[in-house]
Specification:
This is Acetyltransferase. By secondary structure, this protein is an alpha/beta fold. It is 13% helix and 32% strand.
Amino acid sequence: MRIVGVYGAAGHGREVMGMLPKAADTNYVFIDDDCGLAKVNDYPCLSWVEFKRTAASAKHVILAIGDGKVRERLSLKCKEAGIGFMPAHAQSAVILSDVRLGEGSVLCPYSMITCNVTIGRQFHANYFSHVSHDCRIGDFVTLAPGARCNGNVVIEDHAYIGSSAVLRQGRPGDPLVIGAGAIVGMGAVVTQSVPAGATVVGNPARLMEPK
């Protein structure tokens, strides 16, 4: 019997667990060191140490954590333990042609990736989010519910695209770029490239000045 652990028993983790197709030869559990409960939504909730100690024919992890920096840290911890990752793609998620997805991707219900798209490790596309043609997306990137990434856009590592945000379409050879670690606020309409580490909000999106 193999075991699949959904890392994170908070809201997003419960959503991810709920969308997984269940298999008779697999035990599904939550992994959460801060949960404090024996079960969550009728699934066992184990600490990381308990998960590692559990006997199984194979072990896989799904990182159901919204924060890309935390996903990166947990990814390293899993690799150090020799535990691999399983993608979690909802049945209603759509992937069209020539899409390359890195390890550990999570595609929630009604998300879509169209064609000629390259995506790095531990990508999260939440409900109703969309990535259009000819986009390049880095590692540990998160699209919140309803985020819209139009064609010819580059999203660098650890960027976060907020709920219902819209990224304007770029041009071949001249993409719209969302820099590494940038945050696009919910509902923002991004018409220009965003520098690394910046936060933009509004319509049209503007840099948020530090307080």
